[in-house]
Amino acid sequence: MLLATAAVANPCPPALLATAARVAELRGVPLPFQPPCRFIPVSSLRAELDTKLRRDLPLPPELYLEALQRLGFIAGDPAFVYPRLLEFYSSQVLGFYEPSADEMVLVNRGNSAASKDATVWAHELTHAAQERRFHLPTRLLAMQHNSDQQRAASAVAEGDATLVMLVLGPSGSPSISSLWETQRQLAAQTTSLPVPEGVPDFFVEDLVFPYAQGLATVLASYEKGGWTAIDDLLRAPPSTTSELLHPGRRPSGPPLGDANLPPPASGWTTVLTDTMGEWALAYWLGRRIPTRAATHLAATWDGDRFRLARNAHGEWALTHLIRCRDGAGCSALASALRAHGPALLANLAPGREPAVSVSRAGNLLTVRSSAMPVSLPPR
After folding, report:
1. What is the pTM of this model?
2. What DSSP state is assigned to residue 353?
């Protein structure tokens, strides 16, 4: 359960209670459906989000940010970035559903118009409905060691919640064409969100993706089969962002996991193992090459797993396996990684450009920084 030293127990706002009944009816939630409410003052929100992030991330936030910085996803000192990131997330929050306690956590912002708007609560109440029917929020927490799987499942959850919010909005049931227009507006929000100085673009893109892509995925299912089709998505979400970006696509083989990675060499300690996925691979490549080219190269993705390690001397090293869908895509991706890998991974060895090798066996690429000696991955 989340802890907040200044938390206050209060009854739920009338607008929230009324919306809960509407969400339950729309999404087939058995009654009674009335998650309890817990109010926190604005002054406690950062501490609340900090506690939540320390629980939900695979590493302590400061170390996780350093891992992203070493990998080349973000720039800046993690100790500087983290407070700005909390500020950014705090600015987006009026409240949220907390699955571990099955409660609505509401930020007491006084008599703001937003806090009285029923549609504001429809989104988070839908997450409560997802927990009640499919245990999806709890399942999301268990995906913390596979960022791609978590990002894909989160997109379905956010897409469903956004659609419910739109359908229950004050204008009544919107047309499919207007819903798609809203989706396009969401996708463009990365350029309009108020972002504190010092927050890396990665976190803005990562915040918008589940809402924009999630709504697109959910709308496509809604057009074909209504809420029943969305229920099927919630019951068994796509396991990769590639499946969201290319509807109908499935991985050609089993997921690559830690067992496929060679162990770290003597004197090296694993900091993070994770799956990047197509969306994050495209973002990462896009740090060095045009977005369109990065997206095209990443579309060959068919699975990946990486190990980020460090030694007692403060050196960092990467071993990354990437499976491709076809030979031509594999060749193009390998060439791009050879050309741009040293720059992308420059923070593994600050002050000097690391040597990066890219080897290929069939449609499997192995990317290694030269600092850590490794054996070939097991077949």
Report:
1. 0.92
2. P
